[in-house]
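Example record

Each entry pairs one chain with its bound ligand, zinc ion.
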Amino acid sequence: MLQSNEIFTLSIESSCDDTSAAVLCNDKVLSNIVANQLIHEQYGGVVPELASRAHQQNIVAVVDTALSKSGVTKGQLAAISFTNGPGLLGSLLVGSSFAKTMSMGLNIPLLEVNHMQAHVAANYIDAKPNFPFLCLTVSGGHTQIVLVKAPLEMEVIGQTIDDAVGEAFDKAAKILNLPYPGGPLVDKLAKQGDSEKYTFPLPALNQYNFTFSGLKTAFLYFISKNSKDSPDFIKSELNNICASYQKHLVHYLMKVFLKAAHDLGINELAISGGVSANSELRKEMLALQTKGYSIYIPKFEYCTDNAAMIGIVGYYKYLKGDFSSNSVVPFTRSI
Ligand code: KG4
Ligand code: ZN
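Structure tokens for the complex follow.
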């Protein structure tokens, strides 16, 4: 039986190399379908043109599956939300064109969603963080500390000045001859390694900002020097290298994040983005619970790119009547 206070929305995410659609009833996720694009693995990174073509191939089936799995019909939808950026332009255009067409065809409102805001909002799925809270957003393209004052009121108080931490994982994995994306594999191999075996330089602290490019270079020199001395170095030490490097990245993230929390006097802390799936980072965060912090961590499926997080932001925008015009244009960089 339909309740009048049930708002059904469809959401679409296509900013990079995952095609995703979700159906929500208010802020509850009814379905969340993600089609990964395996084509990029052979190139060692995302190839933008191939990503947009794969989105085109996947999007109809992904949206259809999300709707059928939710049990909601197109006629019941109250609005459609979609990722408007930041991301790859060709990829964003596929999702945004699809959402605009559906919104016109069904004559329902369109809601544009910022991908970075959505990563933070993944913490509202099945949880109710207290405001204000601080969120460490760690993904393949971004590393940010965000002060969240209300569901959609967010201020970036620190960020990377060069690479993102996801790139620091992926580039190190590439140096170790691991396939793309390397982050999850480094995490897996690290579980069998000794995280104290090798040490890496800690970047100079710069308020709440991060830098990863020096670390990446230090890692490259470390591997080439040791491989010269012992040609089997990577093979024989892979687990220990992954464990030590991962521990170091997480230690650095936590040091800056906790400095911000301490300075601002905030003990409500969250993480989000693809790297928040990392087991070491999740462990370090959970350990803070014994020190008086309240910790929020999205479920694994809401860490990496997904449409459910887009739907959550869409739902809050819907409540405010913050609808988008059909002439809205995707953007590629953070704004
Ligand atoms: O949020 P996301 O899916 O896409 C972007 O918006 O960038 O993040 C992808 C990033 C990749 O760099 C990937 O290697 C990393 O998240 N990642 C991980 C783990 N799972 C995904 N990094 C470390 N450990 C993981 N378990
Ligand atoms: Zn993302």
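The chain has two domains: 8-121+304-320, 129-297.
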